[in-house]
Amino acid sequence: MTAQLSGLWRRAAVVGLALSIVLLAGLLPAAAAGDVRIGICQSTAQGPATFSTALWKGAELALADVNSHGGIGGQPLRPVPVDVGNNDPAQARLSLNKAIDLDKITSLVCWGTNVMVQNGPLIDDADILAFTTSSGTKVVKASKLTQQLEAVTSLYCKVAAAEIKRQYPAVKTFAVLYVNYEFGIELRDKCEEEFGKKGIRLVASEGHPNAPPDLRSQLTKLIDAKPDAIYLAPIGGGTVALGIRTARELGYKGLLTTYGAGDTPDIYTLKLAEDNFFYVSHATPPGAPEAVKRATEKYGGYTLMGYEYVWLVARLGNEVLKNGQKLTGNALVAQLRKDRDIQTPVNRYVFQDDGYTIRPLAIFTIERGARKLQHVLSASDLE
Amino acid sequence: MSIFQSALPFLANGLSLGLSIALAALAMALIWRVVGMIDFGLGAVYLVSAYALLGLHTALGFSLPLAILGALACGIAAAILIYGLVYRHFIRRNAPLFVMVLVGLSLFLAIENLLGAALSSQKFYVIDALLPGVDVLGTRLNVAQFGKMAVSLAALAGIAFFCLRTAPGTMILAVADNKRLALGVGIDVDHAYVWTYGLAGLMVSAAAIPDVAESGVDPYVALNPVLLALAAIIIGGLGSFRAPVLGAVLLGLAFHLAVWLFPASWQEVIAYGLVVAVLIVRPQGLFGAFHAARERA
After folding, report:
1. Candidates 3.40.50.2300, 2.40.50.100, 3.40.50.700, 2.60.40.1180; correct CATH number of A2-152+284-360?
2. CB atoms within 10 A of CB A294
């Protein structure tokens, strides 16, 4: 009797285990059928948190629209968050491996020069299309399936230098306050080069850690060099705000400027940013969908990139399927570079074979708690 | 300009940063001496005070002085609640130090991310205009910086007075000196802990309020003060309540003088190098180890 019971329990355990495996197997490859998964990098770390929220909100808007029109080949698109920590390549690798192996993502949008460069081979091995919102010039060299969605550092610096020459002709010297890692150093060097072409000389530069406790000593040194302008090159809006506040508190009256890091609500609500400050970022054209315009005002310029990422993946995906190909990174990137000149509902992009992209940029100032568009430079202007 | 003159702005800013770190360091040191834990949960208290100030002043329209009082009260309440609802459970079970550190750290990270998820990770400003200030030693220090320095020094004097001249203070010192003996003579240790967390909450709130007035509020504002406070108590030691304050001042000076002497990219190398050097050469801290039976505030 005891032996019979023991055998029964053993059989029950084996059946239970088998059922569990079947159930788990059904759960794990959730992306195997029914939808197309697309990865969106996310972070709750200081700095990246603000623009990763904007990226997600923009993607949500496009997803609603794309999915209501049949997604890709009748399959809806579904976003998968990929946590990159505090721009940490190792954390990003863990999250990306999970997104590739378990969620079966077909594409990714992510930022961070270090994150993208170190994970470039992983993207290529997994055969997924990656768009990057990083401005680092090295990013696309590390992966043949990665395309810039963002303007590179040299373009940002070129546009800022041209604007200074046009609007602030008295500016002859400048200093750079940069986040002390690969991206910040690149921005410093490219700006020295591009500003130099316009006759604006770099007189000082100082680095700072990400999310610094204060910037008073760095700015004291920079201001001592008496620059006519200071270029802020951090990775988050909060540090731009701290830089503006500290510079003004230390009595600096000259021009302050930055790139897309300044395009966040952290800056919109800073009254001190309303005087003698401009930044270069992405405009929302009048013809853009109303919901996108509203979300951009609320969450900042990265909203547009989240929206356009999803829109581009959907368009490319449908084209690839129409051509009888599979949804692979190689097929998607080949289609992207074949189409090359693409007008999204928001902007016109020129996607180059080398992975770089010419995209419109715009000059903004801050006024009454919001960004104020000064003027737009189209892709044609920048080509 | 002489070399000495060129150093003055960095000295002034270093002193200001150091004394602002000192408040959180003092709170951390107090909890260590009395309860025996390194409390990263103070970061959560910092956040509660910061958001309370923001909410009371900007959302509910309280005047700034009233909002400051409210934020201080919220900070004290948060610290006592965290003790009562979370730490007490572990302390009663004699949880080892590393468990207590993990509990505090987890609580801090959970609150930090909760604020980011439930509210926003956006930065909000309590005072948007340029803070009034005066030129001191070749730099401009604002009222928030003066406030932090004055409150730090007042807190150091205040905590000494409280511990030596008031009944709850002597009760806290008795528990800090010898918990078993304190229990033996009938002191209510739980009561002493409540006072300790309340005091620590007050000090952390007093650190948070001028910080927030100067730099705004977001869910991540507490991380630097907590890490710097920990570095300060490593440098200074826990031999007396003066030790972490002196450690904080040294750390602040290291942060700023490093930039005076070298490119700013060396700032953290030098400041945290100081922490490592102290740990190697004098692990008990530069200003003496904690000898419970002899040391007093």
Report:
1. 3.40.50.2300
2. 13
Q: How far apart are CA B117 and CA B218, in angstroms?
A: 12
CA closest to B226 among chain A residues: A213
Q: Which run of H or E residues covers position B7?
A: helix B3-34
Element housing A333 (H / E):
helix A329-339
Question: pLDDT tens-digit profile of A120-137?
Answer: 999 999 999 999 998 888
Domains identified in chain B, total number = 1
CB contact B211 to A (< 8 Å): no
User: Which structural domain range is residue B15 located in?
Assistant: 3-120+163-296
**Chain B closest CA to A269's CA: distance in Å?**
7
**Is residue B142, in this structure, part of any structural domain at all?**
no
Residue B105 falls within a domain, yes or no?
A: yes
Closest partner CB to A213 (pick from B10, B228, B263): B228
Give me the residue spans of the domains in chain A: 2-152+284-360, 153-281+363-382
- Answer yes or no: is B222 within a domain: yes
Q: Position of tokens 């929302």?
A: A284
**pLDDT tens-digit map of B200-247:** 999 999 999 988 888 889 888 899 899 999 999 999 988 788 899 999
A227 DSSP 8-state letter: -
Where residue B235 sits, what CATH number does that domain have? 1.10.3470
> For A153-281+363-382, which CATH class?
alpha beta
DSSP label at residue A75: B
Closest-approach residue (CA) in chain A for B140 = A250
**Per the domain annotation, does B155 fall within a domain?**
no
Closest approach of B226 to chain A, Cα-based (Å): 11
pLDDT band at A103, cuts 50/70/90?
very high
- Cβ of B81 under 8 Å from any chain A Cβ? no
Note the pLDDT tens digit of each residue in B68-83. Answer: 999 999 999 999 999 9
> Is the model's pLDDT at A108 over the cut of 70?
yes
Per residue in B97-134, pLDDT (tens digit) is: 899 999 999 999 999 988 877 887 778 888 877 888 88
Q: What is the 3-state secondary structure (H, E, C) of A158-172?
A: HHHHHHHHHHCCCCC
Shortest distance between the Cα of A184 and any Cα of chain B, in A, equals: 11
Which residues, in sequence order, are bridge partners of residue A79? A38
Counted residue by residue, chain B has a size of 297
